[in-house]
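Q: For a teaching handout, I want to show students what a protein-ligand complex looks like in token form. Below are the inputs, and the small molecule is S-adenosylmethionine. Please produce the holo structure.
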Amino acid sequence: MVEGAKGPHVPVLLEPLLEAVAPVEGTWIDGTLGAGGYTRGLLEAGAERVIGIDRDPLAHQIAAEWGGVWGERLVLVQDNFANMDAHAEGVDGVVLDLGVSSMQLDRAERGFSFMRDGPLDMRMGQDGPTAADVVNSAEEGELADILYIFGEERQSRRIARRIVEHRPFTTTLALAEVIERAIGRTKPGQAHAATRSFQALRIAVNGEYEALWQGLMAAERVLKPGGRLAVVTFHSIEDRMVKRFLQAHGERKTRVNRYASETPEETAPFRILTRKAVGPREDELKRNPRARSAKLRVAVRTGLPAEAIEATEIDMPSLGLKRR
Ligand SMILES: C[S@@+](CC[C@H](N)C(=O)[O-])C[C@H]1O[C@@H](n2cnc3c(N)ncnc32)[C@H](O)[C@@H]1O
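A: Here is the structure, written as tokens, with S-adenosylmethionine included.
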């Protein structure tokens, strides 16, 4: 039995997503293939073709096990979703399910988890500096900024000081222990002391905020009028970026003209379908507590031309922005 046939990863918010984007037809891009839960969901819901993008070779190894049954309806691309418009044009939908997958967290050798001992790697694609490179070479102030700005870790300075005292690090558990000793063990039921620091390092190593910013613009370029954009985020910074993007590129209020035609005038590249972010329902939470912090936002592409957007317009955290 191929584990990937259903996937070891439980897809989050898939049902509300499929409802919000219905009807699913034509060509879709799944920019975060992972274990393929969304891609299979889209194909089963009626997509003629899904282009499944993931920068991690592991997602593609797993897809080789489950993807065959879909024949030419499934196209696999190993790339950053920031480049999605290089692989298609005029698509009917784009879905993004951001962050790290459980298949990545579960493999100790990938170095994403503070619960499993492995090399301090954290790279989704297999290129560029590892988390060990960042931790062992960044200046103390830079390290503190990474933890604070990317991970909202309030004790960033204290952690950075301890890291510098104890480096070099080569393994996940050694780093997690030093972080835990720096800020103290958390109470049972609370997140592990290293949660925010590991998240911040992962985001830095993979350039995740930059990819999201670029990916949202690429989605705007690649969607046809009427095409759907659905984004699922797992933490507040990402959700805020998506929200700001949709506020800036979602329809603007126009003055009501009583002589105007019935068809509303298009005023922006997107029309927002989810005024408030959609979270998991009770039954999903019971099945999968990991879904607790997931948020879904959905918008429809209009016929207006795509516009670039500045990173600052969507509140993208950047190391250039010094804290006060
Ligand atoms: C949360 S998982 C997606 C799970 C998927 N929806 C499923 O149901 O199995 C996120 C996936 O996106 C990939 N990923 C994250 N950022 C990416 C990027 N910028 N470009 C391409 N893939 C990315 C990760 O490697 C990971 O496999």
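A: Two things your students might notice: Strands lie at 27-30, 49-54, 74-78, 91-97, 223-233, 270-272, 295-301. The chain has twelve helices and seven strands.
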